[in-house]
Every structure is written in structure tokens, then in C-alpha cells.
Amino acid sequence: TGAALAWTHYLLKDKLEKVSPVINRRITDELERRIIIPCLKTDYNWMGFHKESLNNWTPWICSNWLTVVLLCDTNLERRLDAVYRIMQSLDHFVNPYPADGGCDEGPGYWDRAGASLYDCLELLYLASKGQVNIFDQPLIKNIGSYIYKVHIADDYYVNFADAGAITYPSADLVYRYGQSIHDETMKQFAGYLAERQQFGKKASGGSLGRQLPALFNINEMNGNADAPLSRDVWFPDLQVAIARSHAHSSQGLYLVAKGGHNAESHNHNDIGNFVVYADGKPVLIDIGVETYTAKTFSSRRYEIWTMQSAYHNLPTINGVQQSPGRQFAAKNVSYSTSDKKVIFSLDIAKAYPENAKIESWKRNLTLNRSQQVNIEDVYSLKECTEPVKWHLMTCIKPDANAPGKILLTDAEKKVELAYDKSQLSVVVEEVSVTDQRLLSTWGNRLYRITLTHKKQELKGSCKISVIYKK
């Protein structure tokens, strides 16, 4: 609201003055009372001066605060103090950011994390006539390129944590970011987004500060469209591995898997989780999150089903799910790629509390480019009080009638899940979806497949294969 009022005052000051002098006075008085003075005098948590863990709020608020200061504060000394304070807050956000540029909040939040950081950097660049310029820094480049690296196909993006599977990055902002960091791939991706979003043919939405520069880039983006669809992507700091059957194509299988820890921003208990797409459409999924409520960001967050490991593609061990907290983390993470396959491995034992009684739990996820994904768990338990259960989430109604295989078939694709029928029994549970946020992505039904070990063993292994059927 503050930034919108600042732009309104800046662009329409003379016309508003003709309507009533009170309007301009009221705008500047309220901006000073509510934003300019408080932000100079108060160390809010999102500023990071007390070593808080920061997220998208920092650059998002700073971008609006900076807009207000640059456009409306006529006190030069105070304006300089505010700009310096904003730059300090942005440093607090950027300094701990992983070098690979990975956003642990997910692509849906990149719009107000990395993209809002860009809003700030662009304003600083313009206001200083290019003297404040860090667009050549590798981290800033990686934060930008993240958004096209996690693009799956169409409007689908990698969506761990609270991020949704479908998102719509601002075409113009992606273009301007790409232009600033001299990333031609990012600029071409912006053209692809512009085509999908009918950029220039209908209102682009978004904040006024983003809509205004978008007016000048319509022609530049036309005819320069391309989705990179990278074959392999590895974020070593974020511990996210991405692989697809063919470079520059959504055809075939797509695998993405994560390590990390269970205290990430907008965290779900999901260490070792993975997602599989076929021909650019979801098969084994990460559900995302329901519409936010007070409970979502309370001490009761993990009572919500979408946050729990039992509703991700993960095992429940001795009846115990993963726990939240920084200490619950992946160990021994490794990644390798070749023309024939990609392998992502990790030990997820420490993602579970002590009462799960796990000695080790190595998960190997392999994409064979010959159209198969293998999930293999090799484990050792201190005790086995009940059979291990492996959960798989899907948006396609499973056909589990034939022992040893589960068919996931719809109008667009056919995929088979193969498992050892002598080792595992299968139960399919329909999950009704009533939340509007999830309905808009998945429709009114999801399905949880649970494969239960027929024996109780201290040491063992389990292999599930996802086979693409043309």
C-alpha cells in the first residue's frame, strides 16, 4: 500500500493537487508516520539486525520501503540514512543465502524473495545512476537463474515446502532480471512466459512498481521465447537434484528429489522426498500446502496433514514420521550424472527422532534415461516394532488390482509402478480435497499409496520402479 501510494503521489501529484491539496498532504503525512519514521527508529525482526532467520519478507518489505523513500522523502539526510539501512537489511538477507542461489521457500516464493531482491537492486542502480551495481556477482546471477532451472513444463515448477506445483512468475520481471545479469537464457525464458501469459494482451497484474516498467518491454520480449528445460540441475547447497530424460524437452520422465533439513523456510518434514512427472505432467507429487490459517504458522503447524512426512513420498518407520527441527537433516548426500542416468543418494535416518530406532536408511533415487525411475531404500534398524510403510502421493487414480504393479493411467500418459509382491502389500487411500488452494491445482481427489512390508526385519531393502509406458 505504501509503495502504491508513493507511485500515485509521484505520478499524479499535480492532478491530485487540482482535486484537493489535502490528498497529497495526507499521502506524504501517512507515509512518513507509518513507514519512513518507524523504519528508521525500530529494528523490526524482518530487518535481520538481531540475527533472525530471514525469508521473503525482508526483500519484499524493503522493496516497498525503498520505493517510498526514493519517491516521497524530501529530507535528503533522512533519505540517505534510510537507503543505507535498507542496504544493511538486504545484506542480512543475502549474506547467508546459499551460493547455488536455491530458494528453499520454492518457486512460488521466489517472486517475493529473489525477485523482490531484484526490485531493490534495480531501484538502487537507477537511483545511484549505476554506482550501486552488484549484478555481476555470481550469487545474484544464481538467485535469478534459479527460476528457470526449477521449471518442469508449462506452468509446473518444482514445489517442495509450501510452494504450489503451479506458479506464474512475472514475465517482465524475469526479463529485466535476465537483462541486468546478462543471462540470455533467462531473457528467452521470459519470452516463453510472456507467450503463456499473453503478456501485453491482458493486464499483467502485480504491484504498480512492476507494472510500470513492464509497459516498455512488450516488443523486446516478442519473438524471443524459449523454455530451457535443462536436462540436469544440481543445487549442492539446497541439496536438490533435478533430471529429465531429454534435454530441452518435457517428453519422457522427470525426477526431482531433495535432502536438506527440517527447519527450512516454510518447512515440511520431507527429507528424501521426490517428485516424478511424465511428459510434463505430474505422476508422483508433492501436494503443497492448503490455504494459510493461524495454525499454519503456529506451534501446531505439523498437525496439518500436508506438512507431515506420511503425506510425502517417504517411509513411516516403526510407526514414526519425520520430525521438525534443524537437527533433523540428510547425511551423506551425493549426486552424479551421465548421459545414461542420474543418481541422487542420501541417508535419511537423522530425519527421524530416536524412537524410530533407525541405525541407517540410505535412499538411492535413479533416473535411467531409458524411461525408468528407481527408488531403492537400504536400511538397518535398532529395533523393528512394526512393519515399515512406504507412502506415495499421486493425483492419478491408481489401479492396484494386479499384484506387483500399480497402473497410473489418464488421458495423457501411462505409468507403471513396479514392486516386489512377495515383499510388499498395497493399500490405496482416496484423499478428499476441499481446500481451494489445493483444488485449483489437483482437483477434488488425491491418492495415497501405502506399501507395507510383510515382515518385520532389522535389515532390509525395498525397490520401487516408476516405468514410463508410451
UniProtKB/TrEMBL annotation:
GO molecular function, one term: lyase activity
Annotated Heparinase II/III-like C-terminal domain residues: 233-392
Coarse class of the protein's main subcellular location: other
Entry protein name: Heparinase II/III-like C-terminal domain-containing protein
One cellular component (GO) term of this entry: cell envelope
Coiled coil: none
Cell compartments where the protein resides: Cell envelope
Pfam families for the chain: Hepar_II_III_C (PF07940)
Species per Swiss-Prot/TrEMBL record: termite gut metagenome
Matching Gene3D superfamilies: 2.70.98.70, Chondroitin AC/alginate lyase
